[in-house]
Design brief:
By secondary structure, the chain is an alpha+beta fold. It has three domains: 94 residues, Alpha-Beta Plaits, CATH 3.30.70; 90 residues, Gyrase A, domain 2 (2-Layer Sandwich), CATH 3.30.1360.200; 88 residues. It contains eight helices and 15 strands. Strands 4, 5, 6, 7, 8, 9, 12 and 13 form an eight-stranded antiparallel β-sheet that branches. It has a four-stranded antiparallel β-sheet with strand order 2-3-1-15. A three-stranded antiparallel β-sheet has the order 10-11-14, with helices on one face. A hairpin with an 8-residue loop joins strand 10 and strand 11. Helix 2 packs antiparallel against helix 8 and helix 3 runs parallel beside helix 8. The longest helix has 39 residues. The protein starts with a helix and ends with a strand. The N terminus is likely disordered.
């Protein structure tokens, strides 16, 4: 080997060694900063297990992006000695904040956008089902004092303990014979009170939602003058398709569903140009920021579940 080649190989090896050292130092520095913040502020320490260990590195990268977009500072996510994910989030010292972080770290983040049914289109079928299965003993249809259906896709309200029973009845052979073949029922993400949940009627397109999160190009939580309460702004990649879709649903609700739960079902008042839309609902600013961070980077490549967690007090 010539001197020139040996020198070139030596330079490459030196550069590689420097890069490894820089990565190691940055990793150590991030860990030290997180440890210092934990000692000063306290925080949440949580251990996760992934359903597909070979995807652990991809899961960690996505979780780090979610935490950063949410605004969490000096967080540290790593692989523990037994192959699980170990995360520490400084400043999280109460259960409400811990619940949001738990959601950030474990939610799959699968966004779906559905058309909906109005209750008026389903009430006769539900009434016929009630005559057979007495479903109205557990499902309170969303009707007014005169027995007329309220506007929108809320089919009814259910006590939390009866959710499984209602879904079992709605998917029974009798119900499937009475209801439209393309109706799909999902629960609202928010509860009306501590006792009730809302049942939302969705409409499938060839058995599927109209859009998924793959259609998005940008997601942010925000507050505007026109909408002073928390909301999530989304930009669709195909603005023409979105304008056509919203135009077809003027006067009807479209539902934004994340991980199977309906977070918002706004009524479309006009076709929406520019590919922009908003999710708004019964959310705090922190919940909106967390949900935006979950949607923004796409779904986790596999399931992540909490194995252990602990809130650490400041030293």
């Amino acid at each position: 080997m010539s001197v020139t080649k040996r020198l070139g190989l030596g330079v490459l090896c030196s550069l590689a060694a420097c890069l490894l050292c820089m990565n190691s130092c940055a990793h150590k520095s991030a860990h030290e900063k997180s440890q210092a913040a934990m000692a000063k502020k306290g925080g949440l320490v949580i251990t996760l297990a992934v359903s597909q260990p070979e995807l652990t590195d991809s899961v960690i990268s996505l979780l780090e992006a979610r935490l950063a977009n949410y605004g969490a500072k000096n967080t540290y996510v790593s692989i523990s000695a037994d192959g699980q994910i170990h995360a520490q989030v400084p400043g999280v010292t109460d259960e409400e904040d811990a619940e949001l972080v738990r959601m950030l770290l474990t939610s799959r983040g699968e966004l779906e956008i559905w058309e909906t049914y109005n209750l008026s289109e389903l009430l006769s079928a539900l009434t016929a089902l009630n005559a057979t299965d007495s479903i109205f003993t557990v499902l309170q249809p969303y009707i007014n004092d005169e027995g007329e259906p309220m506007r929108g896709p809320i089919a009814g309200r259910v006590q939390l303990d009866n959710k499984d029973a209602v879904m079992a009845e709605l998917t029974s052979p009798v119900a499937q014979a009475l209801l439209p073949a393309d109706v799909r029922f999902r629960w609202s993400s928010s509860v009306v009170s501590y006792e009730y949940a809302e049942l939302i009627a969705l409409k499938a397109r060839d058995g599927k939602p109209a859009f998924t999160g793959e259609c998005l190009t940008d997601v942010e939580s925000m507050k505007t003058k026109d909408c002073p309460y928390p909301n999530i702004s989304m930009v669709m990649g195909d603005a023409d398709t979105w304008e056509r879709f919203t135009g077809e649903n003027v006067g009807r609700s479209i539902a934004f569903v994340v991980d199977g739960a309906v977070y918002s079902f706004p009524m479309v008042v006009a076709a929406i140009p520019g590919g922009k839309s908003q999710i708004s609902g019964n959310m705090t600013f922190e919940e909106a920021a967390a949900l935006a961070a979950i949607i923004k980077f796409g779904p986790l490549p596999c399931e992540a579940s909490v194995m252990e967690e602990n809130i650490v007090n400041p030293k």
